[in-house]
Amino acid sequence: MGFANSVLPEGSGKSPAPGRLTSVYSEVQTNRLHHPLPLPSVLRGPFKLLDGPPSSAAGNPDEIAKLFPNMFGQPSAKLVPTGSVPTGLPQGLRIGVVLSGGQAPGGHNVISGIFDYLQERAQRSTVYGFKGGPAGIMKCKYVELTPDFIYPYRNQGGFDMICSGRDKIETPEQFKQAEETAMKLDLDGLLVIGGDDSNTNACLLAENFRQKNMKTRVIGCPKTIDGDLKCKEVPASFGFDTACKIYSEMIGNVMTDARSTGKYYHFVRLMGRAASHITLECALQTHSNIAIIGEEVAAKKETLKNVTDYITDIICKRAKLGYNYGVILIPEGLIDFIPEVQQLIAELNEILAHDVVDKEGLWKKKLQQQSQLLFEFLPQAIQEQLLLERDPHGNVQVAKIETEKMLISMVETELEKRKSEGTYVGHFKGQSHFFGYEGRCGLPTNFDATYCYALGYAAGALLHSGKTGLISSVGNLSAPIDEWTVGGTALTSLMDVERRHGKFKPVIKKAMVELEGAPFRKFASMRDEWALNNRYISPGPIQFIGPGSNNVNHTLLLELGAQA
Amino acid sequence: MGFANSVLPEGSGKSPAPGRLTSVYSEVQTNRLHHPLPLPSVLRGPFKLLDGPPSSAAGNPDEIAKLFPNMFGQPSAKLVPTGSVPTGLPQGLRIGVVLSGGQAPGGHNVISGIFDYLQERAQRSTVYGFKGGPAGIMKCKYVELTPDFIYPYRNQGGFDMICSGRDKIETPEQFKQAEETAMKLDLDGLLVIGGDDSNTNACLLAENFRQKNMKTRVIGCPKTIDGDLKCKEVPASFGFDTACKIYSEMIGNVMTDARSTGKYYHFVRLMGRAASHITLECALQTHSNIAIIGEEVAAKKETLKNVTDYITDIICKRAKLGYNYGVILIPEGLIDFIPEVQQLIAELNEILAHDVVDKEGLWKKKLQQQSQLLFEFLPQAIQEQLLLERDPHGNVQVAKIETEKMLISMVETELEKRKSEGTYVGHFKGQSHFFGYEGRCGLPTNFDATYCYALGYAAGALLHSGKTGLISSVGNLSAPIDEWTVGGTALTSLMDVERRHGKFKPVIKKAMVELEGAPFRKFASMRDEWALNNRYISPGPIQFIGPGSNNVNHTLLLELGAQA
């Protein structure tokens, strides 16, 4: 019955990973090493690539064409089974991989996937892991990956095999450094595992290498727990599934606590600064009483007062039903979605840069009337935070505002008011939570583990076939793994331009929660029911074997038209 | 691959629980309903009770004897197998159960256990669930438990079957109310599921009923996630195992994140106001770089500066090794263990009650020198919190201090100092976490589920045999379930007295972390290694089937002399 921790995972005898060498594996971690990673059937036999029609861009195709003269218009590629093993494909490839940006469960499996592809289909290949993100490419800091090095990371969370970083390859000098590294290592290909920015960067690299007549191809891979990098051909970014299930486990526990105790309102802030996919998914998994979706707040041009009133109204209705408890989910980026808050912040930055904040508050008269009202509406602690805490550029630090605590305070004030007016009889105690780091590095779910392995394996196939400027795409994800489709999508086809400093900059548009999409519509159709009648679900801890262990998240299923 | 949520758990057709009726079950929850609950072999066949020698008390036996003239000296009872089914035991018992105090995973299974015992061994029995804790007894608010009512709660987290409460039965009037309820329902017995206070209360009730010549017997059951209700015969309180595993899952994830990112120190505050068992267990499960054990801080009479320096020293050493990240565990009750903080709080309460806090800070001169120094040492935010936030009695709200944030701030200041002195070269970013509510209501582990079921079943056997004033005790827990021992321990044998308001009050002493005990010694022998060399373990999410699913926590195994 004791814990059977392994000091070193099996198979790591010869050249174990320096990070994991000092690590001890739990029984679950060890077991995950042996978890099989089935491939879609098309990746199991001989296959060839079929090109589709020429692609365009998500917006402003003319500008994208100018920015990517070599990449623009590339067709998407699809892998299809073929009768015989294709001949003439090169062997002994030299491939680099890099992890870019924040951690997401499954990153290690993408690397395992491309590594195994090369081992099996392009013998005598070499894989270099660039260390610490794109900076590793620029500084030519890398480690040569071997089966023994990679093995201990199979199906394990984190990015610590080669670590990640947030640098970008942007300036001509930085591109030059990347070229030098590619030449020095004689790279045939590079796999960039990252989010929207990193994949845009991957495409710029691909364009640059091609322009310089270099042989180095670049393929991207969709990573982000926020779930905001996706499109028709790339139905999901990896890590979202695991992160949402970890958060939902915690929310489920807190819900059961709320119902048992009967006296707390839990305000749970969840990751997702730009988009509210995580909040939406967690609401669908747990049936929280309230979930605020930033995209809806923005679309309806709601004010902070509107949001406060919405929450307060439900609390009052619940009190009438005898429920003085509940669970409320809030996306971390909520206040970025509220126009009036953005306006206030802009005015504050201006005032704080030039004026003295006098104790008498005369400075407030410099605020426009709407901003003045909003400022007065904010809890005192938040007012002080806005005035005192600035970033190195002297700007107000919006990201530091603990939205869940701010809302608790505002709801409290509003409830006091209603109590004195006699429209609320109940008791309110708010508890705040922030679930963030806890979900980025968990052991990947079976779905993320398999999906990532297929993404990496597909990236190997694309590079092997000489493709560049594509993002690895695995589709038909609601079907059994066998039937998953595999291919590559032109990165330029996901792009639009933004005007920055008088220039057009290419961007992969973040996929926001669509108010007309199936996940939001499902949520919208249920939320009144969930608000008043406690239809809580406790998903429980992620299971790796047995019931529920192969479930896919609701967002993906609903988007794919399946019944979640 | 879709989620297969059941709208109503099976078997809840006739008289489903009102709480769970409005609930939807996740696949894991549904599956847990069917998880088998094996009984120790002694509970599976015919058994009889063997009484041991007369017992004494944990301290001041003379006073305990005076307080409990009927209960004191009772022998512990042990269940032993017997050849034939004992005859003459009453049937048709009328038994009440009550959940008292904070939630702990497994409470529902205790109720399932006693219910099943009575169904199987005392036919035509009735079980009443008192609602909302001891208040339910006093107000005679109850629900009659039926198989259909109970079924949906089997192996489920929370206390929502009958809910809990923190009231105590203390005054003569309250005892009178309890008597009236017992008479009204014609109760043969009462099972009190609670922590140290609740079990003390259970014994007082047992004494009172006996004194009044009432037939109602009272049995206690050891519950608390904090793990501070235990002794030789009661080796564990239920809920500790599940809670620690949930916290350790999160800590493991945060560790992997720390190692991947390489730039954060995560300060994790964990539940446990009186004792640091949870922090110790989580350190043993995860090998965090630092864990502060309150009992050691108290024993060594450490100051806040000592604790800060201990952490800062390790951070400096790690920086020299190239590690600017780490994970630090802190028990929620830390500052209660630091004598100088207690002194400062006492002085502040005195000063704030009588004096004006002038802006110039002249009031500080009223503090004793040591307290003045400590106050100045505290981060400004904490200083303000101490002065501004008071409870309804005007006292400083120590419980509201976010210890982890306070420590981050103090470590930061100390590191700045060392940086300017040239003794620290590195970068420090603190991230704070509090894991509390997330662990109290999780789905019970296999261990807690089985242990609780046995505790409840044993309580049924004790009441059926006419026992009173005992706590249900199940032992030999590191052996296979089959070999677990079952019995009851005299509650008075766990008691000592405390002097309060000039009177002796009986208390079950909280079991603190013993610095000479095996769990702490193991931790102490490893901590220097864990501090500098990252030997992180990520336990992963609790698994209900497969590898590791039947593991028991380290604390229990080490205390039982097994190798964890």
Automatic annotation (TrEMBL), chains A, B:
It is found in: Cytoplasm. It is an enzyme of class 2 (transferase). It catalyses: beta-D-fructose 6-phosphate + diphosphate = beta-D-fructose 1,6-bisphosphate + phosphate + H(+). One of its GO terms (molecular function) is ATP binding. The record marks 223 as: Important for catalytic activity. Mg(2+) binds at residue 196. Residues 1-21 are annotated as: Disordered. The keyword Oxidoreductase does not apply. Its main location: cytoplasm. Its EC number is 2.7.1.90. Pathway: Carbohydrate degradation; glycolysis; D-glyceraldehyde 3-phosphate and glycerone phosphate from D-glucose: step 3/4. GO terms for cellular component: cytosol. Diphosphate binds at residue 102. Residues 94-459 form the Phosphofructokinase domain. Allosterically activated by fructose 2,6-bisphosphate. Belongs to the phosphofructokinase type A (PFKA) family. PPi-dependent PFK group II subfamily. Clade 'Long' sub-subfamily. Tetramer of two alpha (regulatory) and two beta (catalytic) chains. This is Pyrophosphate--fructose 6-phosphate 1-phosphotransferase subunit beta. The lineage of its organism: Eukaryota, Viridiplantae, Streptophyta, Embryophyta, Tracheophyta.
